[in-house]
Write a structure and sequence with these properties.
60s Ribosomal Protein L30, Chain: A, alpha/beta, about 30% helix, five-stranded mixed sheet, about 375 residues, Spore Coat Polysaccharide Biosynthesis Protein SpsA, Chain A, 12 helices
């Protein structure tokens, strides 16, 4: 599903009480929600169109995310869209999704259906059938007139077009007019625009009270992914082990190609598993000399970056270390602190536990130790 995205976030947000694209929504800037949704759906490039001078605010709001860049918008929305299209690197036939950042609760389902539809039409937009009874009153003294809602739809964004189609349509648009959306530009140019199923959660943040509704709905556009990892290493002659990033003095060491940190290895595998990205050996083969004796924090950082690249976040982790010795409890808080640093999580979201096998098995015979980890990720639905 190859596509590019332009997110229009260059407005002043006057009716919403200020620059709504940078306002907080459930702990994240409004604009970040849309960028994460496009990343989760596999966007090859994302252009965020921002107000002049807001580069630092954009960088702060989108810290840790990849595949995006910011360009400044113009005086009108049309100008901002054109600036965003001009900044793309994609070929003419690539589907491009143009989206308003003021609709933050975007899902991968909406994106996937748009991209598919845009391959067989000149454009596609998500829409909801008008369900409410419509009344018209031309002035306060005029009688109410009930309007038919038959065939009426509420258009949403993103709207999808092949790049060549939307650029040609804008080139033909009269300079003195302001289009209401990109679909109207393509329609006037003679293009066929089709509808895909909209989403009631894709409400537009226009007025201050809209944020209260968005807060209530925000939890429904994220999905939780669970991953589990396991690792084991044998003991050998040495003077200490590294577990969960903490060095512990011991009369043996763990044998492995890297630093043999079983805790970090199990945690890395758990994250990769939740993402469906294979295991640690796929990303860091033990046959590769680059990883010999390397700090296993490198492996974990790679997995964390993959989460960010998908527009996700790690919610919490739980690591269990299985061994008779060394004793883990004296070092447990240091391990939680170190994992919190590596994962950018509060210590309250990091659990490290230890258990024995009651002298049974290879850990009971102190031939080695094992670790298992469970992680919960949040990704766009």
């Amino acid at each position: 599903m190859s596509f590019s995205a332009v997110i229009v976030a260059a407005g002043s947000g006057r009716r919403a009480g200020g620059a709504k694209q940078w306002r907080d929504l459930r702990g994240k800037a409004v604009a970040r929600w849309s960028v994460e949704a496009f990343l989760a759906a596999g966007a090859e490039e994302i252009v965020l169109v921002i107000p002049p001078g807001d580069q630092e605010r954009a960088a702060e709001a989108l810290a840790g995310l990849r595949v995006w860049r910011a360009v400044e918008g113009g005086a009108e929305r049309r100008d901002s869209v054109l600036n965003g299209l001009a900044a793309l690197d994609c070929p003419p036939e690539q589907p491009v999704l143009v989206h308003d950042s003021a609709r933050p609760l975007l899902t991968t389902r909406v994106i996937a259906e748009l991209v598919q539809a845009a391959r067989h039409a000149d454009g596609a937009l998500p829409a909801l059938a008008v369900a409410d009874t419509l009344k018209r009153q031309d002035d306060p003294s005029a009688p109410l007139i009930t309007q038919s809602r038959e065939g009426l739809w509420k258009a949403q964004t993103p709207q999808a077009f092949r790049r060549s189609v939307i650029e040609a349509a804008y080139a033909a648009w009269p300079s003195g007019e302001a289009p209401t959306d990109e679909a109207s530009v393509v329609e006037r140019h003679g293009g066929r625009v089709v509808l895909t199923p909209g989403d009631p959660r894709l409400l537009k943040l226009t007025y201050p009270e809209d944020f209260e509704m968005a807060e209530a709905l925000a939890g429904a556009v994220r999905t939780t992914r669970i991953g589990m990892g396991f690792d084991a290493h044998r003991f050998g002659p040495g003077d200490g082990v590294v577990l969960c990033g903490v060095h512990i003095a011991h009369d043996q060491r763990l044998i492995g190609h890297s630093d043999a940190d079983a805790g970090l290895h199990a945690l890395t595998d758990a994250i990769l598993g939740a993402l469906g990205e294979g295991d640690i050996g796929d990303h860091f083969p033990p046959t590769d000399a680059r990883w010999k004796n390397v700090d296993s924090a490198v492996f974990l950082a790679h997995a964390v970056d993959l989460v960010a690249a998908r527009g996700g976040r790690i919610a919490n982790v739980d690591v269990t270390l299985i061994c008779e010795r060394p004793k883990i409890k004296p070092h447990r808080e240091a391990m939680r602190t170190r994992l919190g640093e590596l994962l950018s999580l509060p210590v309250s979201a990091v659990s490290v536990k230890a258990t024995t096998t009651e002298a049974m098995g290879f850990t009971g015979r102190e031939e080695g130790l094992a670790a298992q980890a469970v992680v919960a990720l949040e990704l766009s639905a």
